[in-house]
Input
Amino acid sequence: MKLYKAGQVPPQPHMYFVYGDGGTGKTTLFKQFKGHKILFSFDLSTNVLRNDKDTDVMLLERKDAPNIQNIVMSQVSGALNTGSYKAIALDNMSALQNLVLENIDNAAKDNRQNWQKLQLWFRQLGTMLRESNVDVYATAHQVDNGTSGLTSKGRYAADMNEKTFNAFTSMFDFVGRIYKQDGQRWINCDPEAGNHGKNRIDDRTQFKADELLTPKQEKENE
Output
């Protein structure tokens, strides 16, 4: 562990996790991040970045699947260690979780132990990203829980095992759901709405998607 004296804790880049239906623009949001950046694609949806001159893309191949944990840790660590990237994206965590779980299931018979290993691996990945000193952006599909067991509040969550999701996003500053309404894209990060959400960057709970990286104080000063 590293000790920082009182008042000497350094500022950290932000970590954003956005989930939503396909076609809502999750991958496109990464274009908002400034500078040279890299996106790791686990669901192969990279068409929106084809002409982006600032973004390198690391694309999953079929042969990677049996060794996906080691490959992801190695490639993400290698990209961060170059020091040439201002931001990194992992797109899509739902797809990555399924690949990792398949490997863990094939390696052990104890189902409870398998889920624990899954959660531990994602926590280790999240910790490495938190220590990277670059902006981090991650995406996931959403699951619609319907009205079962819910009040009049929200009903959506990231399409991940809940404990694995918590282990991974515990270090993230922002978790929100992207959706389309009346032809516009919105992000909701209000936990009181009943969906998974949090915002430790400012006090916004809902805003237009193209304002993701515009903190409330900056927006008010414009």
